[in-house]
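can u do me a favor
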């Protein structure tokens, strides 16, 4: 059996966002090779050491930069691939064309899959799309398959970048479901004590980046709408993912309003699986691009309904009216109204949450993600 190379555009051991991909790459590669010694990982820099997500049985690590255009380094890539009898390559966020691809093929790579955690392009139509398709068809040494986390992101490849549909594939993200234990009655009060939240409030949860496209401002405005304008005192908004000081970007929206005491920014935490079951519902109000965020899977696995903006990619994270609710992109008023509906209808909330958990169990375990990854490679 020949070997498999998994490579990334970032330095080694960068943290959670990349670790979950490293886990899947490693275990899918093992499913195929059945030999840890035949699995290789490569990064532009190894200065940060080995990721905890990669099994300790993996011992082959190389400092290789596939974005390089330096001929000497590209020859090193070719030699490494040839010397280690690597015939399959899995790259993270690798574009249609790079100079290194020719050297990979010369070294012996016959299967090349690029796994994307973001959209490849904005959508195109007409002549522009036709030109994109022509451009892709003329590129010889490109990946054989482009894999995405959602149908929406796949669409950006086919109708944006011009990738032929048969050269695309969808593999949803997966999690360790056993870490997330639903608590429909919210009997665990730990989160209330941790953040000094009055226990008569129902907690609305968000976890993710604070950049504009994630729509945190929309959620904050919905909080103001609910508390200041609709008079709700039984709700509290809990945000996670903010670096120190990032929360100040939203001060002008809610500081000085009645909602101020109903909003908490909790920063980065590694124990969200303990916090989630005490929450009432999750929200994702993305206004720019997004794929199939891990936080949406964690929310569903915890038995919470999710309210999500009706946007390409993220809309797939809920079955509208069954595992959660969708609202128009950027519409904080409608979001507030839907939140009020759930606040006033706990049996509906519980039903949505229970179905969300079942959906995650059936579609989003790490084992299922690894299996789909193997199937994607087998399709090449």
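np, heres the sequence
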């Amino acid at each position: 059996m020949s070997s498999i190379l998994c490579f990334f555009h970032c330095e080694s051991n960068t943290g959670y966002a990349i670790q979950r991909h490293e886990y899947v790459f490693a275990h899918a590669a093992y499913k195929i090779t059945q030999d840890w010694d035949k699995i290789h990982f490569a990064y532009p820099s190894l200065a940060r050491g080995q990721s905890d997500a990669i099994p300790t049985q993996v011992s082959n690590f190389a400092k290789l930069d596939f974005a390089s255009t330096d001929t000497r380094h590209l020859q090193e890539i070719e030699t490494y691939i040839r010397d280690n009898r690597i015939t399959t390559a899995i790259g993270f966020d690798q574009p249609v064309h790079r100079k290194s691809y020719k050297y990979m093929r010369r070294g012996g790579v016959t299967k090349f899959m690029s796994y994307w955690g973001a959209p490849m392009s904005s959508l195109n139509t007409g002549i522009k799309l036709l030109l994109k398709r022509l451009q892709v068809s003329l590129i010889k040494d490109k990946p054989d398959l482009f894999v995405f986390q959602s149908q929406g992101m796949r669409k950006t490849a086919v109708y944006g970048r011009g990738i032929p549909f048969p050269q695309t594939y969808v593999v949803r993200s997966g999690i360790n479901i056993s870490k997330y234990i639903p608590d429909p009655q919210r009997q665990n009060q730990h989160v209330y004590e941790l953040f000094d939240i009055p226990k008569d409030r129902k907690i609305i949860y968000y976890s993710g980046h604070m950049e504009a496209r994630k729509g945190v401002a929309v959620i904050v405005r919905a909080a103001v709408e609910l508390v200041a304008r609709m008079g709700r005192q039984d709700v509290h908004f809990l945000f996670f993912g903010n670096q120190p000081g990032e929360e100040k970007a939203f001060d002008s929206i809610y500081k000085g309003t009645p909602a101020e005491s109903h909003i908490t920014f909790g920063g980065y935490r590694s124990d969200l699986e303990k916090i989630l079951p005490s929450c009432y519902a999750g929200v994702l109000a993305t206004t720019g691009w997004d794929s199939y965020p891990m936080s949406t899977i964690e929310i569903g696995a915890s038995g919470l309904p999710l309210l999500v903006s009706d946007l390409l990619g993220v809309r797939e994270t809920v079955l509208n009216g069954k595992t959660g609710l969708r609202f128009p992109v950027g519409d904080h008023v409608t979001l507030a109204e839907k939140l009020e509906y759930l606040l006033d209808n706990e049996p509906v909330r519980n039903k949505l949450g229970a179905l969300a958990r079942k959906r995650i169990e059936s579609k989003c375990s790490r084992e299922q993600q690894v299996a789909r990854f193997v199937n994607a490679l087998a399709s090449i």
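The chain has a mean pLDDT of 95. hope that helps!!
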